[in-house]
Amino acid sequence: MLEDGYGRRFSYLRLSITDVCNFRCSYCLPDGYQCDSDREFLSLKEIANTISAFAGLGTKKIRLTGGEPSLRRDLPDIIALAAATAGITQVAITTNGFKLPHFVEDWFSAGLTSLNVSIDSLDARLFHSITGQDKLHTILDGVHKALALGLKTKVNAVLLKPCGDTQLSSFLEWLKDVPVTLRLIELMQTGSNLEFFKQNHVSALPVKTQLLQQGWVQVLKEETSGPAEEFSHPDYAGRIGLIMPYNPGFCTSCNRLRISALGKLHLCLFAEQGIDLRPVLSSGTIEEIQQQLVDLITQKKISHQLVSGLTGATQQFSMLGG
Ligand code: SAM
Ligand code: SF4
Fold this sequence. Notes:
Strand content: 15-25%
Number of domains: 1
CATH class: Alpha Beta
Order of helices and strands: EHEHEHEHHEHEHHEEEEEEHH
Shape: globular
Number of helices: 10
Distance between the termini: 23 Å
Structural class: alpha/beta
Bound molecules: S-adenosylmethionine, iron/sulfur cluster
Largest sheet: 12 strands, mixed
């Protein structure tokens, strides 16, 4: 099992398969995707090697992310190979959801076990203004299709100051009947969003207080759920998870590692740099990849330094998948 110097064990890999995206989320890619150089994302073989090496070291859950992972045509093949890898019990994807209605059945048949869909607002006009895409209803159709298939579904929403109370109240209304887990994520500073961050960051602590006052109860975490705090309520079909990276102790339960679409290992989302594993991922043996991982994990720091405004190498989350 991969274990760092602070006793944290890593059973969860976030694997970015592209950094290309077709949305323009105001906190991530406000000017849209810019192609600054020619590059090749990890091939199927490199992805297979990566997943096998991690699985052999105790990884149980793989999340495919990006950029927008559904922009890769071989996504069903990637899901299938992850699902077929011995030791992998959960194959998840994080997506902006624009392809869900057409492809979620294919992904499910390929072996997908859970899905995170990013929906920052249930107001179609606000959704359009945040993401640059007028696609809310298509994405909601996709969410309902996923639920009908029995896929465990979460909805990611970044908390944004101007959306405030209306964002929360419309989600709460929705969760009465829809059995998804809503993940409210505090906006994080990155290398490229400082001004936006200053104007829009809001703590999720008042949301936690409000939930507890309204009878929501904190639930015990699953082994793979990591730093999120999750809440349930007997009158609601859905649940709520809060991701509060600015809270002290957030990193104590870190259980995940990240590989970029170009094959760099990021020991933290806000690590100073990615460590290039591409050569060994493409032509090394599984044992050689594992040896590198076991050696490198000792470099993982106890915590990120976000409160000091240190965002490391991450210019925007589309580089790495969040
Ligand atoms: N394109 C896919 C999507 O949006 O779901 C996958 C990649 S996206 C980078 C993964 C998650 O990161 C999304 O839920 C997005 O809202 C979140 N995210 C992006 N930038 C963020 C930021 N600065 N702070 C907090 N969450 C962010
Ligand atoms: Fe694209 Fe996801 Fe970033 Fe939005 S958050 S711009 S959908 S990568």
